[in-house]
Target: 6-phosphogluconate dehydrogenase NADP-binding domain-containing protein
Amino acid sequence: MEVGLLGLGIMGKAISMNLLRNGFKVVVWNRTLSKCDELVAHGATVGESPAEVVKKCKITFGMLADPPAALSVVFDKGGVLEQICPGKGYIDMSTVDPETSAKISEGVTSKGGVFLEAPVSGSKQPAETGQLIILTAGEKALYDEATPALNVIGKKSFFLGQVGNGAKMKLVVNMIMGCVMNSFSEGLVLAEKSGLNPHTLLDVLDLGAVSSPLIRGKGPAMLQSNYSPSFPLKHQQKDIRLALGLGDENAISMPIAAAANETFKKARSLGLGDLDFSAVFEAVKDLQRLS
Ligand SMILES: NC(=O)C1=CN([C@@H]2O[C@H](COP(=O)(O)OP(=O)(O)OC[C@H]3O[C@@H](n4cnc5c(N)ncnc54)[C@H](OP(=O)(O)O)[C@@H]3O)[C@@H](O)[C@H]2O)C=CC1
Ligand SMILES: O=CCCC(=O)O
Model:
């Protein structure tokens, strides 16, 4: 099976490599074209534009940074819309808001193509090993057709109905994750400042109800100030911001998420946006110094 992949950031690169390893032919494109070289060395071919990738492939995936990027590769010159047509499908895995997803869906379907949104839960390592959780919505026929690829990309795919439901589910999940990371960071600071050993806190947490892959996976690195990015902090802040927008539309009060958003914004203002989202710990520490 041949598939296209637009966007070779942390996630797009890992997903492409995994597809190649599992026998898929992959046609890649990235805004910074030089990032395609490593994929070519592993057997991928390159399209000069998103449109060229769509021309070559029946199904093309997008994995872009944010709503402006996701819209740009579809609607701008050389974009997906120039070649999408009946018989071709576009699957957007970027984390975006439901409105962005709906615009892309309308654009694709207006040209006779089919659209599926498919944001993912899970980070760099699950992407490398095909263990993502895929939150799809949109055209069921495209979901069925793409199932062989989805089964390689993820350990479980959900089909959630109409376009927008995948985006909403993803934003809710990441809003929770951002709040947990923020609260965990405050707990580490509180433990240390009140005279406890934060390493012992990790041991205690790991044995109790709060134990989670997130805390187990990130805690030791955070205590070493190691924030090598799996999930960039700027994207976590974008996700909480978009989740708060969803809250606004539905008149849902989310004071905890709003507070977490402020801390992630603070972290970005400290220049931590490209580090892992666990670097919010540094912003929490900074806030204590100021108070
Ligand atoms: N990392 C993670 O753990 C996870 C991330 N996600 C989501 O997946 C998406 C990608 O994440 P990730 O791979 O980490 O992000 P990266 O920041 O590593 O990569 C972003 C990608 O988007 C491209 N891009 C940015 N702006 C534009 C633009 N204006 N036009 C075209 N391309 C653009 C970049 O191209 P270039 O190389 O030229 O800059 C790059 O390919 C995001 O929506 C993120 O929220 C979802 C689950 C997990
Ligand atoms: O959007 C990023 C999610 C990261 C994760 O689920 O670990």
Summary: The first strand starts at residue 2 and ends at 6.
